[in-house]
Structure formats: C-alpha cells, structure tokens
Amino acid sequence: MNKIAPIFGIVFIVFSVFTGTVNYELNKIQYPGAPTNFLEVSIVWAMIPYLLLAVLSFVAAYLTSQEKKSAETEMPSEVRTTPTETPS
Predict the structure, then answer these.
(1) Is 85 left (phi over 0), alpha (psi -120 to 50) or beta?
(2) pLDDT tens digit sequence for 41-58
(3) Does a structural domain hold residue 54?
(4) Total domain count for the chain?
(5) Which residue range forms the structural domain that includes residue 15?
(6) Which helix (H) or strand (E) segment is 83 a member of?
(7) CA–CA separation, 78 and 14 (whole Å)
(8) What's the maximum distance between 2 C-alpha atoms anywhere in the chain?
(9) Does residue 87 sit within a domain?
C-alpha cells in the first residue's frame, strides 16, 4: 500500500488533466458561443472526482508512512527480555 498509493495519486492527476483537456475541446465544439465561466465550471466539475481520488491516495500514502515510522520507533521499547537464571 505504501508504494502503490502515490502511483495511484499520480495516475489520477494525469486522468484529471486528460479529462480537463478533452472536456475543454468538446465544449469548444459543442458550445461555440458559451461564456467563459460556463466552460470553466464544466471543466472543473469534470476534474473534481479525479482530483479528490488523487488527494485521498496521497493522504493514504502519508498516513501509511507515518504508521510505519511510529511502529519502527516503538519496536525497541516493546522488546522485552526474560531474565535467565544462572546455576549456583
């Protein structure tokens, strides 16, 4: 999970950019006289799902790395040694 989550985040960002460019070109063809605000809003709404998934992927990667760091720092304190008895 730690290595694959950032890759998914990057892939979602690429999909978001691709969706934005395709949506822009389609809106130019479909609505040639549309106001700029309409085009901007429709492009942003098309990109939001991919951007949210990218952010969630990066947050998951960050939380996983923090969990691993905390587990590594706690390991030495959790190791307990059992006293050995020496024959007298």
Answers:
(1) beta
(2) 999 999 999 999 999 999
(3) yes
(4) 1
(5) 4-68
(6) none
(7) 43
(8) 98
(9) no
For residue 83, tell me if it sits in a domain.
Answer: no
Angle at alpha carbon of residue 32, lines to 21 and 39, rounded to 5°: 45
- What is the rounded CA–CA span in Å between residue 45 and residue 50? 10
Which residues have a Cβ under 8 Å from the Cβ of 31 and sit 6 or more positions away? 38, 39
pLDDT, tens only, 10-19: 999 999 999 9
Confidence bin at 80 (pLDDT 50/70/90): low
Is position 51 within any domain?
Answer: yes
**Does the pLDDT value for residue 2 go beyond 70?**
no
DSSP class of 5 = H
DSSP per-residue codes, 24-62: HHHHHHH-TT--HHHHHHHHHHHHHHHHHHHHHHHHHHH
User: DSSP state, 3?
Assistant: T
Write the single-letter amino acid at 13: I
The phi and psi torsions of 84 (rounded to 5 degrees) equal -100, 145
pTM: 0.70
Q: Terminus-to-terminus CA distance in the chain, angstroms?
A: 53
